[in-house]
Amino acid sequence: MTKSSLARASGVAAALLAGGALALAAPLAASAHVRVNPAQAEAGSYTTLTFKVPNESATASTTSVTVDLPTDTPFTSVSYQPVPGWTTEIVTGTLPEPVTAGSATITEAPVSVTWTAVDGVGIADGQFQEFPLSVGPVPDVGSIALPAHQAYSDGSVVDWDEATPDSGEEPESPAPVLYVNDAPPTGEHGHGATAMSATAGESAGGADAAADDTASVASVSLGLGIGAIVLAAAALVVVAVGAARGSRGSRGSRGTRGDDAGAVQR
Predict the structure, then answer these.
(1) Pairwise CA distance, residues 188 & 184, whole Å
(2) Are 17 and 86 found together in one domain?
């Protein structure tokens, strides 16, 4: 194998390895967002929202999560389910503007909730944690943004607060959204993006279906990634064998030239 052939084979192997790595990383990156489940709720109802928080850092753990609650259409009732290893604080504050609910005027309401890991506990690399929160009554609006702020042990903070456009193409750091009267965007990737089910059983089935779809996409990407890496490994073997043959051939040529020179001298 010539030097140019070896170089081309090495380039192909490197490209396949890079492509395989990207294919493996893509499904992980696509799913590593803070989510709220269910993604839809009925106006006037009381519902339990579960925030699913994955850890995106390979070197730091998640130590706290804060979710901002709406202040223009507030939840008047907010309660939490204890999460082992985490403390929970619901902050009540004065609303920017008084809100009328029936015959009552609301000036204060829960404005945020923060979960903080106790010492030695957190969300490590490759892990996620779910945080349940009961809220109500759900305001009669189109949708409710629930921005989240994820703090890490290295001091960094990721703000999940970007709005998802109607096209459904998610921004880099999308805010969790609870849809009430509005339908989720066509490309919404969050759980419960389909029409709201009439019963809890149907809701669970819809969530399972969404999870299956996500798993299918991840499986295809994983398969492509592994395939690319296998091909890259095969290409590297070809490169190594070619290099070895080239080295032996070079030594053999030098030996032959030496013998010929000796014959001429004799």
Answers:
(1) 6
(2) no
For CA atoms 85, 88, 30, 210, the dihedral sign is positive
Strand partners, 92: 110
Does 141 fall in a domain? yes
Distance CA 74, CA 161 (A): 18
Cα dihedral 83, 117, 52, 125 in deg (nearest 10): -130
Please report whether residue 193 resides in a domain.
Answer: no
**Neighbour count for residue 238 (Cβ, 10 Å):** 16
Which tokens belong to 98?
Answer: 């008084």
Do 181 and 228 share a domain, yes or no? no
Of 6, 230, 155, the closest CA to residue 222 belongs to 230
The pair of structure tokens assigned to 230 is 């296998």
SS3 62: strand
DSSP result, 133-181: EEEESPPSSSEEE--EEEEETTS-EEEE-BPPPTT----SSBPPEEESS
pTM surpassing 0.70? no
pLDDT per position as a tens digit, 172-222: 999 999 999 999 876 544 444 433 433 334 334 444 444 444 444 344 444
